[in-house]
Structures are given as C-alpha cells and as structure tokens.
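Reviewers asked in the last cycle whether our approach scales beyond single polypeptides. To address this, we selected a multi-component target totalling 603 residues and predicted its structure end to end. The input consisted of the following lines:
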Amino acid sequence: MLNTEALFDKFGKVLPSNSLIFCEYEPGNDFYLILNGQVKISKIVNDREKTLDILEEGDIFGEMAILEEQPRSASATTMTEVRLLHFNRANFEILMKGNPALALKLLAVFSKRIYDAKRRLMILLLPDVQAKVADVLVMLAEREHKSLDEMRQVILKGVQPLDLANWCGRPVDEVEKVANGFIKQGKLELYSDRIVINNIRDFQRIVNQKRKADKFRN
Amino acid sequence: MENRFRRGKSYSGDSTRPQKINQVSTLNGPVARTYKPGSIIYFENDAHSDEIYVLNQGRVVLISTDIVSGEEVKEEVGRGEFFGVKSALGRYPREETAQVVGNSVLLVFKLNAFEQLAMANIPLTMKMLKVFSRQLRGIHRDIRELLGQREISMPATELLNVGEYFFKNNNMDHAIYTFEAYIRNYPTGKFIDRARQLLDLCRKGAAYPAGLQDLKELEMEAGVAGGYEEEQSAVQNLADTPSSTVDDRTPAQDTPQNLTGVLYEGINAFSRQDYQLAAEKYQEVLSVGNIQPGEERQAYEKAAFELGRAYLGMGQMDQAIEALAGFLKKFPYSDQQNGALFQMATIYEKKGETQKAVSFYKKVVDSGRTGDDVRKAKERLKKLV
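The resulting structure, written as structure tokens, was:
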C-alpha cells in the first residue's frame, strides 16, 4: 500500500497540538494526508466555532485545493501532535504516479463526496420545510446504518436542531417548529446530545410522497 | 432546469479502451459477460454492489432521473467506457438503471480488480479524478444557487474577520496565523492597515482594542459608498458582458496600471470592436511573470480566455484556437472552461471540421456543469450528429 515513510522526507510535516494548518477563507494549494494524530475541521458560524468533523490517520483533507482555486471552506486545526504529508497541484501528478494507492483513495473520497453533495441537493429541492427536515433525518440515518430496511428506531448522536437547519438551508426557528410538530406526533424525541427517530419509515414516507407529488407536477 | 449530472458513467476516453485493460488486469479479472437485448444490468437504487463495468461490444443505456428537473435522462455508454464506478467505489446504491439495448458483451470488474487497474494506470485514474471533480463542482454550484449564495464574494474580509474572532477569543496563535495569511495574500487589501495593527497587538499579547469599529459594518459602509472591493473577483463579475459595465467598475484611482487595469483596457477595446488593441492588452497581461494569487491571478486567467475571443474577432481562427487551447491547458479548473471549449467547437464548425466540433461540443456536455454553454452545445450536437 501507500509508502508513506519514503514520502515523509520530501512532503512530511510534524505539527504540535493546537496548530492551525489552514484557516477558513484562506487561499490554498495544498492538501493533506494524516499519518498520525487527529485534526479538527471547523467553521465560525454566528460567532461560534462549530466542529464539522474530526479526522484521523489515513484521512485526506483540503483535497478541493487540487481542483479549484477557491478559498478554504473550513479551518483545519491539530488536536494532538500530528504527522502529515502535504501536497499541491504542482507535485500532485508525480505523487500519484509514485503512490497509486493514494490516487485510488482520492478516487473513493471523491465518489463519496459526490454522493453526499447530490444527497444534499435532493434535500434542498424538496418543496417544503417539513419534507426537508424529514429527508435530513433519513439522510443522517442512512449515514449511521448501511441499510435502513430492517430498521425502525434510529438514534442520531450529536445532532442538534441547528444541524438540521444547516442541512435544510432554512432558519433554525422554522426547522424547530417542524421538529416540534414531529415531537407532538410522537415521531421524534429531541435531547441535548441526540435525536431519537422512533420509526424511520414515517420520515421515508413523507419524503417519498413529496417527491412523487413533485414529479407528477413536473 | 436541464440535466446536469452524468451518473455512473464516469469517464470516456482512449485510455479506457478494453484492450488496455486486459493487459494490466490479468490477475483477477475482468470477466467478460454477455447480455441479451433488454436485459437489466442493475436497477437504480439497487444496494451497493462491488461490480464495475466496461462496455466491450453492443449497446448499453443508463437511465436516471435528473435530480433537479425530475425528468428521465437516457445516456448511451460509449464502447470502452466505464460505468457503475462511483457507486461501487463510494459504496452507495446505484444511481441509475443500466439496460442493454442490443446483444452486448461487458467486462465486469470486481472492486479489487478495478482497484488494481486504477493503481496500475495512473493517467486513467487522474482523468477520472478530473471528471469527478468537475461533477462535484457542478453540484456544489447548484447547491449554492438553491441556497441563494453567490461565490464567496469577499474572501479577504472574511479571512480577516476569522482572525478577529480568534483574537477576541484570546486564541493568539491562530489570530497571528490568520492576520499573517491576510497580509501575505492581500498585500494591497482594503483592510491591510487594520490587519497589520491587529497582528502587532497580537504579537505584543495585548487585548483586542475596545471601540474598534466592527469589520462587517465597515465593509457595508464601503459597499454603500460604492467602494471598490479589492479582493472581490471584479474581473469575474464582468463575466461575458464587457461592454455594459466596464466603465462603472473601473478600479479606484489608487490602483493605476496594475494587471486588472490593463485587462480592463483590453475589455474596453474589445467592446469597441478594436480587437487588435484588445489582443495587445491581453498579451500585455499575459507577459507578466510571477503572478500573485487573488485579483492578479484572476486578471491573468480572464486575459488568457479573452485573448482567444479577440483573435476570433479579427477572424484569425487558428490563433484563436491556439489561444483557447493554451487557456484550457493553463487553467484546467477555470469556470470559463466550458466557455473556451464551446468557442473552440464553434470555430471548428465554422472551419468545416465537423468531427472536431462534435468532439468539443461533447466535452462541454460531459463537463458535469450547467449553463448556457451546455444547453447550446446540446442543441448543436442534435444538429450535427
């Protein structure tokens, strides 16, 4: 597999804990592969830092920089001492040739990203907030479980109304109103650290009906 | 909205021809499988499968539902093309139905065999990465559109704002990093003095200055006053309507003969149909070495694209093609890629080189992007093919 040690001499970096690797909105050409340690991906939203993801050994981040000259969409900060490899567009092709496993890994990362982005688009295209919230719940459940076929109850850890609102692209109060409606109907339970979906079928049904109605209209 | 996503079919091009595949994948595949007309290879939403296909003989269509329009979309797979790649690699359900039209032979790769192939054939993998990235960009653009977001319009101000957030929260190391990033990337930025002052205070370990006017407020005031947003892609905003807005957007007097200024002169000349002068101005921009990121780079990119159009204006088709090809090579990730490909296709069409024109129109359609160029390319293809 990936011969990382040989690459480390040329492209390696060791960063102490709590180092900013890159900052949100900063122009950047490098992308990174974590060899050891943890990296937090975060964003400042409404004057608060929001953690989007925590990455570990073998994870790639900043990869959009290979493809487009857009500013970084989030910040990356080390949470422990981190050893990583950093590459840029200029050495990308050489790197790929010398490290086919990395090329393959990127191919898989992009496949997944495309799926996630399409799924997000499908949520945003739903006609009303209720359907959007329902589909966000289905999508988050799909992420937790390989197949929802045999599932009824699904627990989403660490998800809050603000997250639902972000996924829906709607204001949080609007989303909370919909969520409260689901709670009253006994379909959903909201806790500070988790959301409990009592029967995921309820939400799949709402989404399917809306999609069908929408398709019919078209 | 029109269809914008090619699903499953992830790559087309010479290096995916099956004979090459056979050479490098003798260890554990691929397996040739024959299908009768009408057979379904897989259905949309079928659970994750680890099979990836290449059409060897016959005909296969991919039938999908366009996410945006809800319309059924049919695409024919070309011989030697892969399909079913993303869902197998990304481990998610199939995104389209693959149906055989005539008697067909497919090469079927199990995921591990495909992985061996991808690792042994890096140019192929690189091409796939580029196709995937274009698709991803297209989807991101649609998402932004639906959310009513434009491209990040003021990255410099936002960057500084993040630095100030760190400073206010006593995260000095991160604040210093961010202010330095601002100063490095936007040395002529509107808030350069503010960034320097804050960096200085941070280094001294001082507190965030009380009473400092909020950055966003300042930005808004500048906007209301019609201030020139130095880092905003003013050049990008000019887009394809140079004649109507150039004069209004000419940079403030304190940014005289910079690259953007020269570019504007070129665009102005173009709008007066003085293509010769326009070409000279664009070449002047392009002759500068050591391009800085940010506005200068955008000016450089725009000039590279516009040079092709200026040659076209002069009727110098071969030079136009050369310039546009140069642009495509230099800026493979530019938003203007489709514009350049479309221009090249029309030039070839004018020259009577229909085959080449078709190939370039197809590139536009296959880009995974949306917009007028894609729509127009589809129309031209209908007429030409």
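The helical segments of chain A are 4-11, 89-98, 100-125, 129-144, 161-168, 172-184, 200-217. We regard this as preliminary and will revisit it once experimental data from Aim 1 are available.
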